[in-house]
Amino acid sequence: MKVSIVGTGYVGLVTGVCLAEKGHDVICVDVDRDKIEKIRRAIPPIYEKGLDELLRKHAGTRLLATTNLRDAILRTEMTFIAVGTPFDGNEIDLSSIREAALHIGKALRDKSTYHLVAIKSTVVPGTTDEVVLPILEAASGRRAGRDFGVGMNPEFLTEGEAVADFMSPDRLILGGMDDRSIDVLAALYMPFHGIDQLRTNNRTAEMIKYVSNALLATAISFANEIANLCSALGGIDVVDVMHGLHLSKYLSPDIPGTGRVVAPITAFLWAGCGFGGSCLPKDVKALIAHGRKAGTSMRLLDAVMQVNEGQSKEILLRLRKHFPDLQGVRVSVLGLAFRPDTDDMRESPAVPVIEALLTRGADVTAYDPAANHEAAKRFRGRPVTICDDLEHAIAEAQAIILVTRWAEFNRIDELLAGRDPQPVFIDGRRVLDKASIARYEGIGL
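^ thats the sequence. predicted structure below, dont judge the formating
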């Protein structure tokens, strides 16, 4: 198929290169000329594992990039809208969605053949049918269902694993205003063999996306609330508690002939310093706000966010056990992206941790394998030393805080062996063996 994608962020660009890899012809559209030029030159504008290889393979052939939205619409059979939908505290910002729908609608005026417009962006239930569809009809002068279709096809991509997630999805949610719209999406995904598909309406597809992220956020905050209780009670390590929980048949069933199989969701039932990124915090807050507008109090999700927002403070509590006064204390923060294998610092727990350290007068160094350039922009003009490698980051540290679960940090125990005096090590993700480091502190311990 010939597909155009409006928006070349994490979702739009990954969707484009992966559809090209599956044999489709894709045109990526963005108003950012610099980003479009990079895509044309096969230079990834974002860090995402596996993206550079696919971009080099398909840029200029199966994958084109342009700022000319109208031309892209006229040359393709369907269009994905994959623009950002930030949350402003009260509701998601649909300005980019509205703008994209308006320009797509204007282009459809000059198109005689049927065209599907499908939303990839995360939007609250009702947005596709009640916001996007009327704009498309008004701008095009055409009728939805007869001249063009409107669908909703949510993404379930984990940053750092987005390419793998797209190429091997666990499910395909095909939302549409009618069967014809859904049939176009089904045809697009024909190369994805053996994947469970759910055909549904647009509102349900929108809701599935939010519910999926809300469940993951709830699992994380549940584990963190238990971790904080373990710390308060004493004599309990939340790592052992979670390992015991994971052995439940509901989370790791013993399948005859196969043995014990651990459910992937156990990765979210693990204590740490909180979740971040562009999805979980934004989507949970948006769902809470949307529920309130509908007259439904989202008490559980409110608590999920309260636990998460307080979790970075647990790091400081453990640090101040050893340094009641942080003035001049040399602290190294390891991991600045909100998760490994990405350079995305949006809502990263590292940010409030560093801000709290600076407020208390600590001498802060920091390092991340991928997000140093983002951190340099984020802390420009602030007294934070961004180091180029792990060794330099911890060389003079009196305290080390691990915030992000990068594999590179698994060798911290080797780097600290023989150091005298030993720095305090605060494991904000509980990934290292507590017996391997002399002055170990961890969430839930």
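The mean pLDDT is 96.
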